[in-house]
Amino acid sequence: MKKCILFSWCHNRIFFCIGTSIFLSMEIVNNWMGFIAMTLLVFLFCIICKTYAINCSIPDDPLPIPHHFAQPGNVIFGAIVSQAFFFHNSPSFTEDPAQALINEVISLPKMYQHILALVFTVKEINRNPELLPNITLGFHIVNNYFPARITYKAMLSLLSTQQKFAPNFTCDLKKTFIAAIGGRMTETSFIMATVLANYKIPQAMDDDYGDMFLQKIEPLLSQNNICYAFILRTPRKTFLEEYIQLITMELRYDQLYMEDKVKVCLIYALTPAMENLRVIIFVASVFSSTPLGKVWIVTSHWNFESLSVQRFWDIQSFHGVLSFTVCSKEPPGFQEFLQTVKPSWAKEDNFIQNFWEQAFDCSFHISTINENSNLLCTGNEKLESLPTILFEMSMSGHSYNIYNAVYAIVHSLHALLKSSFRCRNVIGTEKLIFQNLKPWQFHSFLQSIVYNNSMGDSIAFDENRELITGFDVANWITFHNNSISRVKVGTLEPQAPSGRELTLNDNQIVWHRSFNQGLPISVCNDHCYPGSSRKKKEGEKFCCYDCVSCSEGQISDEIDMDVCMKCPENEYPNNIQNQCIPKMFTYLSYKDPLGILFITIAIVFSLISVFVLGIFWMHRETPIVKANNWSLTCILLLSLLLCFLCSFLFMGRPEKITCLLRQMTFGIIFSVALSSVLAKTMTVILAFMATKPGSRMRKWIGKGLANSIVLSGSFIQVGICTLWLSISPPFPDTDLYSLKGEIIMECNEGSVIMFYCVLGYMGFLASVSFNIASQARKLPSSFSEAKFITFSMLVFCSVWLSFVPTYLSTKGKYMVAVEIFSILSSSAGLLGCIFSPKCYIILLRSEMNKKEHLISKET
């Protein structure tokens, strides 16, 4: 096993030969001489491997990484940055890669601050006598040009020595590589972890990933009733022709900037994707139409990095961007350090020349000045003179992360050295070299480290090895000269109590100019206001819906309710159906205008009845009164008087006693009145039939027959009412549903069948009287009232026949009013039709109220 490990350090070709020799040895294992030959061959390869390891005579790298920055030290930090990239054509794979593959390197000037932040941190630590005394920190920074495949090469370059691309060779015993700081791109960090895991080297990295972000954000949006209109993946472009294709296909992404309903765009993207997004929006503004104003919400990866060529691009589309940036503070002396940066400040810095030329739009080579129409770089340009879109003098959030990451590793190493001194050997003048120090030895120290940095911030990691920190909510304000300003408008503290993680100062937020500082509203459609509910649109997101008015009897008292709710039984919806109102108790009261009208009519006709009765009493000895049967006349007038007065039982709040009496009283009194009319009609007919010679009807003439008819007719109705009371008597009740907004207080008839039996019996009496009176209306008598009875029964039947459908079609107090009207009108009809002609003769035509006139009329 040890030999295998040893050979794994050798060149790939030798490792392949070893595999071949082992395969051959299996064929001749039974041959003793073959075994000896195999052993000699193995030792020969070991000698070759050792020779390579001592001399490090590795061929030159055909495609070295030109952008790197190294500073020697006893302890070396490695760092992968993405400060520059290049356009190149697709490889043909017909020849080895060479430097000619790179057409032109393009720098992201703003990201050069990350390199300077690491250099500043190392210099600050080397000046601190309390951290790692007598130890010099060094660093090795390598650019990965963004593509993931180059990250492998950049990572292996950090593990190589003597500027040779020779992973696993130990050519320089003075280089102690203890930790690596990962890049901002997730893919870069994962690749670094894959490589460094083999060597157990600690790494400070970013662990977010786009797909994981979607998996986490989608359920959170749904829980908060937020939906998205679309998801677009910004294309990843590597080769030059792919960028050209991106420009020609920008219309595929017009939803992102032209969708009118979408006012908020949540962007989770790293630097390359954000640059592609800026290209898409720039092309849209130049070739198609001006992008609509949006609220861009971006994550901490975005810091408005721009290429030098983009310094003149319009950035007003991004006015009002809200971004989550890592909470950061600026270490003392950082800006002073930036002011010292010059092209000649460090000859090991292979980044600065390209950065300087593109940031200041100048050139260090005279030959390219006329070609590119730019100025000659003097080297005296000031970083603070650059626009903020290209470079910031204040420390960014990612630079602050680098600052803390370096300090975290140094504090962990310092704790390791304090706890164990056997890992170091002192050589010469207090120079320390860590021959036996292994990076994995301070993993536990790094996980448990807690310290305060120079700004007083506490730095620690949680159980998931994530930095315990918060975020600032920054509002990016753009100006017409293409300068930008970043204003802190809130904080996000993941460790805060639930519901208090996010704090925003709404009044400080500057929105895109298209919103005129009004609160942006980004909805699929307007809210469904109280009085309506949401109905999902087929094939649309859950937040896209139609607003449907609530059904009858239902309300919605909140915005965007999914279902309308019913009001309680004693309440009803208002006109706009957004709240329930208590129902009003309703009944025909004495104070009601309709009640007052009925009371007036009832009293007037009651007085008329009394007046008629008085007239008949005063003229009871006259022929016309005698001819009309005085006793039946009194019974009829008294019953009509009671009919008028019984209407009072139907008015007022229904009580138990009034409910029991109203229909019974009405039915019995009307039966008495109709029985009296029937008796009067029978008396008239029998009187004329008795005048014929030999008639047997003479014996029926008298008060006995009339009284019998009245009593028998009335007792039958009394029997019906008694049966009604015994089976299912009327009772007070409330009707909650018949009328909107009203609770009808009524008398429930108990048995509707018995109620109509009462009415039916009255109709029977009226129809019998009508038929008999019709037969007697042509009798020769001046005082014959048969024709008046016929007309009164016609009025009576007409009223009560129209009563039934009208009564059934009305509700509430109007149902009671219909019955009162029928009682009063039918009673008035009987009173007027039967007694008005007699009163007319008694009062106005007294000459007709004589026996002679009666006899002459009969003859």
From TrEMBL:
Keywords: Cell membrane, G-protein coupled receptor, Glycoprotein, Membrane, Receptor, Signal, Transducer, Transmembrane, Transmembrane helix
GO cellular component: plasma membrane
Pfam families, per database record: 7tm_3, ANF_receptor, NCD3G
Domain G-protein coupled receptors family 3 profile residue range list: 594-858
Ranges that cross the membrane: 6-25, 594-618, 630-652, 664-688, 709-727, 753-774, 786-808, 820-843
Protein's membrane topology: Multi-pass membrane protein
Superkingdom of the source species: Eukaryota
MF terms in GO: G protein-coupled receptor activity
Coarse class of the protein's main subcellular location: membrane
Localization of this protein: Cell membrane
Family that this chain belongs to: Belongs to the G-protein coupled receptor 3 family.
PANTHER family in the record: CALCIUM-SENSING RECEPTOR-RELATED (PTHR24061), G-PROTEIN COUPLED RECEPTORS FAMILY 3 PROFILE DOMAIN-CONTAINING PROTEIN (PTHR24061:SF599)
The protein's name in its UniProt record: Type-2 vomeronasal receptor
Organism, scientific name: Crotalus adamanteus (Eastern diamondback rattlesnake)
Lineage: Eukaryota, Metazoa, Chordata, Craniata, Vertebrata
